[in-house]
Every structure is written in C-alpha cells, then in structure tokens.
Amino acid sequence: MRYQKINSQNFAWYDLVNPERADFNEFVKKFNFHPLNIEDCFVASQRSKLEQFDNYIFASIRLPFFQRQKRQFQIQEIRVFVGRDFLITIHSGYLPEFISFIKNIKTEGKARENFLRSPQYLFYSILNHLVTAYFPMLDHLGEDIDKIEENIFKGQEKLMVKEISIILRNLLDLRKTIKPLLGFSEKLLGIDHSFFSAELKIYLRDLNNEVKQVWTALENHYQVLKTLQSTNNSLISHNLSDRIKTLTVISVLLLPLSLIAGFFGVNMENVEFVFGSANLWLLFILMAIVTLGVYFYFKFKKFL
User: Which residues, listed in sequence order, are joined to residue 6 by a DSSP beta bridge?
Assistant: First the structure.
C-alpha cells in the first residue's frame, strides 16, 4: 500500500493507494466505519453510491480512464470518507486527473491554501476536478465524430464502420459512469448534515449543474453518432444495391444472346441458313439488335 498524509490547520487528508484490509484496520478503529463501507472499498461496484452516517459520509465514484493504445475507456473507482476533521481517499493509482490534483496541492502553496479549507470543501473540489475532466474527453470525441461525418461523405463508408463502432463503444462506457453520477450529485445536494454548510451547498449545486452539462453533451454526441451510423449504413446499402442492379442488367443483356447462340449451336445440318459467312454476320447483327433493344427498353423504363 502506498500511503500519504496531507495535513492542514483543521483536518488531515489520508490518501491510500491499493490498501490491503489489514492496512485499513487502523482507520476503521480510529474512525469507526461501518462494515458495509469497508466491504465496498475492496469490492468493485457497478454504480456510484453515496451514504450518510452520523459521523461521516461515504462515497464510491466510478470514473473513466482512457487507454490510448486500446482506444477505449477503463472504469476506475475512487472511494471517499468525509468527516468533520478528516478525509480519506482510496483508489488504484490509475486516475491521472486525481493524481495531478494531489500533486498540484502538494507543490502549489496557493492551491493548497484554497483546497484545504475543510474536508467538506476538499471533497467538493475533488469531485469538481474529476467532473470537469470529462469535458476534454467529450471535446475529443466530438472532433472524432466530425471527422467521421466528413469521411462518410468522401466515399469512405466502409472504413467508417469500424471507427463508428469504436466511438460508439466509448460513448456507451461514458454513459455507464455519467448516468449514475447524475443521481449521485442530486443525492449529494439533498444531504442534510451538520458539517455541510450553506455555502458548500452552493458549490454542490454548481457541481450538479456541471454533471448535467456533461450528460447533455454526451447525449448530443450519442444521438449525432447514431444518426451518422444510420446514414453510413444507408449509403453502404445503396452502393450495394447499385452493384447488384448493374450485375442484374448485365445478366439480362446476355440472356437473349445466350439463347440465340444456343439455338444456332445445335446440330442442324439440313438447315441452309446456318452455313455461309454472310449468314454468320446476319447472326451477329441479330444479336446486336436484340441487345440494343433490351438496353433501350431498360432506359425507357428508367431501370438504368
């Protein structure tokens, strides 16, 4: 377990990275945490949660971490215990935004003074930092969607099938984390706890608005991409239909030629018309007339 303690005038912040149960026992004894919350710290959850107790608040938050090599999001969790004079964060160490937040506080005196006002304000600051980190992700996804739209109408429909699938998967992963976060931020606003001041409620209301903005932007991207996927599939189907129509026309044009060639290809020794070079040219002319007749019929019916 990697463990660091950051002290301020009013409280202590304990940041734990991949702790074992035995390592966490000293905090359990010191702060009297509920056994279910302890269990939540060591078991992966499917949604973000927020629970209120007499002496602390427990939060478990699911967040995305983008793997550039695989071009997909991996879900990470951070657990937070907030009390009157302490804050404990537990995570895996694979959240770049949170790691940069800690480094900023440790190295920047102004940031330290600003964020370490109280454990409750630090809790809000962590949430705010993690939520605002969604916006660059969404901007990047928006740029990818714009490129997909441009390439679709450049005739690269087949190449865009895989790209659309990748971006759609990433949007679905984000939906899995942001949708529960909406309920989480709403519930956080409704907490009536003695150490949540009226001033802090204003910040929490702003946090809730940011989560809603993230969700709205995500839904817009999702709807646009679904529309582009439908358009791309329609263009691919249209191109396929054109190729099938072309092959069908060629087959129909060859059908009378095959019939004529087959008729004159049978053994007819007693038929004088079959013999002679002049008659052979008449046969070619007949084939050409039939072929042109079928072609102009298709043009008249607007099949071509």
Answer: 13
Asked if 95 and 76 touch (Cβ cutoff 8 Å), the reply is yes
Per the CB < 8 A criterion, the answer to whether 110 and 116 are in contact is no
Q: Can you give the residue range of the structural domain that contains 250?
A: 245-300
User: Do residues 21 and 163 share a domain?
Assistant: yes
Q: 178: buried, middle or exposed (CB in 10 Å: 19+, 13-18, 0-12)?
A: buried
Whether the full predicted model's pTM is greater than 0.85, yes or no, is: no
Structure tokens at 298: 């298709």
Nearest partner of 58 among 39, 74, 30, judged by Cα: 39
Boundary of a domain, candidates 219, 238, 257 = 238
Pairing of strands 49-52, 2-7: unpaired
Same domain, 33 and 176: yes
Structure tokens at 29: 């004894």
**Per-residue pLDDT tens for 233-286?**
888 887 777 777 777 777 776 776 676 666 566 555 555 555 555 566 666 677
Q: Which residues pair with 52 in a beta bridge?
A: 57
Same-domain pairing of 83 and 182: yes
